[in-house]
Amino acid sequence: MILLEKVLARGSGLAVLDLGFGAGLLARRIRPACRYLAGVELDPEAAQEGARFFDQPVVGDLLDGISGPFRERFDVIVAGDVLEHLPRPEDLLSALRPLLKTDGVLLLSLPNIANATVRFGLLFGRFAYARRGILDRTHLRFFTQATGRALLEGNGYRVVSVDATAMPLELAVPALGRPPLAGLARAAALSAARLWPTLLGYQFVYEARPA
After folding, report:
1. What is the pLDDT of residues 150-174, one digit of tens each?
2. Are residues 131 and 145 in the same domain?
3. Lowest-confidence range among 51-60, 96-105, 174-183?
């Protein structure tokens, strides 16, 4: 998981804000590296499970939740699969910038609407929402690699890196998620995403700093 790797690469003793923390899947893995871990989650049922990993869990709307007050600014802010659910993601990005330390980073993941599966569907006139994935029915905004970068740069951030994640082939073919094929399928999907990220990347993970 690229977001996890990027948080842990920042070292230990971190102050981290995790947006949309859900059941705490990321929080429980970064908790040992954090001296202060805060988070915001809209869904109260999910938050009930994830809150135990946080020093300061907030349940409610993201924009209201990040108003704090927090006891310090953050080394890392994580917004994994969040912005696509907002009608005005630029409002959240602007509000997050003063919460970062001068050398802090925003780690952000966005689904790739230009993925080959979506393009192929459009070729045949299909743009069908689903229960999950790139065309999750709760998504309000759609991004390519370029428009994700433009969103960040237009709201006061400098993009340091962009990484493409592998397509979850096992969702379409369950056998690819089980031995002996799982490792090979995962490696092939990751290689394809790195080779042609704009077409075969499933998500883009941006690392950005305040400009």
Report:
1. 999 999 999 999 999 998 876 665 7
2. yes
3. 174-183
pTM: 0.92
Which element (helix H / strand E) includes 2? helix 2-8
- CA-CA distance, 75 to 52, in Å (whole number)? 21
> Does residue 114 lie within any of the structural domains?
yes
Which two three-digit tokens encode residue 158? 């400098």
DSSP symbols for 57-120: EEES-HHHHTT---SS-EEEEEEET-GGG-S-HHHHHHHHGGGEEEEEEEEEEEEBTTSHHHHH
**AA identity, residue 66:** I
**7, 33 contact by CB (below 8 A):** yes
Q: Is residue 64 part of a domain?
A: yes
Please tell me whether residue 8 adopts helix, strand or coil conformation.
helix
Residues 194, 91 share a domain: no
Note down the domain range covering 192: 168-201
- How many independent structural domains does the chain possess? 2
